[in-house]
Amino acid sequence: MNKRSTSLLLRNCTRQSSSSSFESFCLYLHLHFSHFKFKFNSNPNPNRIKFNSHTTMAAPSSTHPPNPLITPYKMGRFNLSHRVVLAPLTRERSYNNVPQPHAVLYYSQRTSNGGLLIAEATGVSDTAQGYPDTPGIWTREHVEAWKPIVDAVHAKGGIFFCQIWHVGRVSNTGYQPNGQQPISSTDKALKSTEYTQPRRLRTDEIPNVVNDFRIAARNAIEAGFDGVEIHGAHGFLLDQFMKDQVNDRTDQYGGSLENRCRFPLEVVEAIVNEIGADRVGIRLSPFIDYSESGDSNPLQLGLYMVNALNRYNIAYCHVVAPRMGSIGGKVQNPESMVILRNAFNGSFMVAGGYDREDGIKAIGENRADLVAYGRWFLANPDLPKRFALNAPLNKYHRPTFYIGGHPDPLVGYNDYPFLDDDESNTVRS
Ligand SMILES: Cc1cc2nc3c(=O)[nH]c(=O)nc-3n(C[C@H](O)[C@H](O)[C@H](O)COP(=O)(O)O)c2cc1C
């Protein structure tokens, strides 16, 4: 997409009399000209992969319906200018668990004025790791390393939450301090030999892990984040307690729904008390069984959690739609999501396989307040603008999602093209 076609799109857009096009145009101006810019002097990468754009959406037309994704939303204390959220995306480029300077440009590129970003899953302790080069937030060095990244997002008017996680049994001794066993709700091993048999946490150890989450949240605020998202999804530690096909405990953290949800809710409560409810979100995936984390009654589990969360008045609840659980990622089961949405009192965010049209429908039909986009945002740093303009999208390049896909970590990271190429190396101060 070059400048000429962008201005053509804009010209088309300004010709429309509908309020949607007018809103889109206003958003374009808002996203573009609201802050002073300076150029980031990174060299253009000679290894840059050529990403082929493909058109997934039609250009705006006079019959184009209003775009609810591009409407403001007040999420508690935060005034968001639109509903297109950057989903948490592990990129495995934080060497030794330390966030790197290249993340400044990466997150800054994905920031829009009034847009909400959720940082990649970030470890709460030295036992939390299970993947190469994922960031942490349990040491002073981690906190200091996050600061310039958070500053860059704030300089462009973004709102930035840090996703904090513990992988539990999705790990092996190679990631653990002193080569110890990973911890979990259970001592049942995952089938793959990639993982080591976990050690079931003793009841009296659980408060220590709750405390790790609390300190990580405090550290995130110290690093400048606006809040934290507790990773309660995708078969990681908190999910290992919630799901009845993993949790086989007989203490007060196992058995009944109330018992299985006790630990995640203790984490929520500790963090709410530490940093304030309006800075806390949580991600849940009751319908998804990644890493052998199925539940016999996912809707009942989801409902129990959202009802319990209502007690805390947190900033948002973020639920991954069931369709991501199937190969192809397009299994529709919005009913169960609507039930959770209706049961939850606060801001409800959805994710998992949404494209622009799905997002428009989800917001337009009041099935969600916010939509988090993963792969499309990864490949389209200016995704809110593209959605506003109904512009073509870059394809994502799967082999470079994680480190190891290319010898240069910046490839497939900082080099996805913008609609307007001038923007791609821009960081604001
Ligand atoms: C490369 C990659 C990394 C991801 N990392 C995380 C993560 O750190 N935390 C998380 O909760 N989900 C993670 N996810 C899941 C995404 O947040 C999102 O839910 C998923 O991609 C489905 O949304 P999409 O269809 O918009 O991509 C990741 C997904 C991808 C593709």
Automatic annotation (TrEMBL):
Protein name, per record: NADH:flavin oxidoreductase/NADH oxidase N-terminal domain-containing protein
Cofactor(s), names only, from the UniProt record: FMN
Ranges of residues in domain NADH:flavin oxidoreductase/NADH oxidase N-terminal: 69-393
GO terms, molecular function: 12-oxophytodienoate reductase activity; FMN binding
Protein family membership: Belongs to the NADH:flavin oxidoreductase/NADH oxidase family.
InterPro entries for the chain: Aldolase_TIM (IPR013785), OxRdtase_FMN_N (IPR001155), Oye-like (IPR045247)
Keywords: Flavoprotein, FMN, NADP, Oxidoreductase
Pfam families: Oxidored_FMN
